[in-house]
Amino acid sequence: MQKEQHTSINSEQIKSGKNFLGILNDIKRRPEDASEELNIPLNEIQLIIEGKKPITTELVNQAIKIWPVNARDFYIVRDDCVLGVKIMKAKESAKSSRIMERAGKPYYEYRDTAMSTVAPFRPEWILELYTVSDNDPTNSDVQWNNGHFMHQFTYFIGEVNFYYQTPNGEKKVAIMNTGDSMYITPFTRHSFATRKGSKENGLILAITYGGKLTGDVQQELSALSVELGSNFALDFSSTESASGAILNYHRNISNFTIEELSRNSSIEIDELKSFESGLKLPSISDLKKLADALTINIRDLLPNDKTEDKVIVKFHNEGKTWFYPENSDSYEFHELTATSALPFSKSFEMKVNNSNNSDLDLESGLHQYVYNIGNNPVSLTWELNNQTFTESINPNDSVYLKPFIKHNFRGNGKLLILRIGGKVVGDSQRELSIIGKKNAKRAISETIQWFDPKGKN
After folding, report:
1. Can you give the pTM of this predicted structure?
2. Three-state secondary-structure class, residue 281
3. Strand partners for 312
4. What is the side-by-side order of every strand in the sheet holding 151-157?
5. Which three-class secondary structure state does DSSP give residue 100?
6. For residue 217, with 0-12 CB atoms within 10 Å meaning exposed, 13-18 middle and 19 or more buried, which class applies?
7. Rounded to whole angstroms, what are the CA distances from 94 to 102, 153, 219, 299?
8. Can you tell me the distance from the alpha carbon of 194 to that of 187, in angstroms, rounded to the nearest whole number?
9. pLDDT tens string 310-360
10. Pair 190, 147: CB distance under 8 Å
């Protein structure tokens, strides 16, 4: 274990050194420039770049005084999942138990489940300790929260009342049972309680996760100020208003007048005004003309084609069921709640059926959370760096798997699976794809200075 920890520290130091080299490249500083400006010996700068010496707080503090960089730019994400998979046993989860009171009464019991420093989600086991006497959404005994800055997927076990508030302030209740699920957008006020007559307290598995706004994006918005940053929130209340707002935004950042855009796109001024006001949606032909005139892609002008509720409730019998892989019944998937607003968020119940096939027949390009909701253990086998690992996942154990880990589950059991894209999928993935696989490694972890001092033809 100590050897693994030492290896992890060395690995993080190497990553930190490459990150430092990337910063120097970005602000066009050679190691000797950094040495002079930071007043640090050149050999020490080289040792940091090579990952043989850690970056000190003193260096960071000096750097942010003289360079246009932030302290957080120097600190890499700590990888606590060096084997690609992180497992939390039910006993470990139970040790994290804490009782949350609301209005002076025990309301929830919280427990941690599998979390990782590299994962975008924060999954929780929450037992509903309070029992309501009725299903009235305005029941004064229900204790509401203020909402939170995280998307939330919830899986229900037992008889649970899910309380939520609509954007216009109306309080509602959904009568949930085992296998039902829901999704709520950030800042939706909500609460949960056990229903009267239940044999035992209701339980939820609540997985909260950040979308694209957390981390660097949130920091940038904060640095711009609340007043300026809020202007990035366009009117997405309908498809038409969203389309108009997006077109108006791109026209303004290009400093095009309506007349100039009309000349460049060959679209009549009145037509453009109807597009921007949301009175009319542009045709595909119009979108192509507008995209060419603005030097962007058609997709940059497309709004979401669906306007969904802030809360999506899905009862178990509403989900589709299918087998996987092709021509096999190794796994039976059952669809849980989803939202088109987060296309890289997927949730399933998965039955693991007995199979003697040793193939690693599962792989997902998303971060993956797994919880054993069944009564039987299943085995998890995965591969990383040409090494194969196998662990038993018992009832109430939970697992985190990194994207693209080849794996399988074997046995006879039932799992809850949530997959989240994190920050990489979507626009970031497109940008990385434009850079190309050949340069992806340098984009992820810089390896060389941006120029060769000896010259290069």
Report:
1. 0.88
2. coil
3. 183
4. 98-102, 105-112, 121-128, 203-209, 151-157, 181-184, 311-314
5. strand
6. middle
7. 21, 21, 34, 47
8. 23
9. 999 999 999 999 999 998 999 999 999 999 888 889 999 999 998 889 999
10. yes
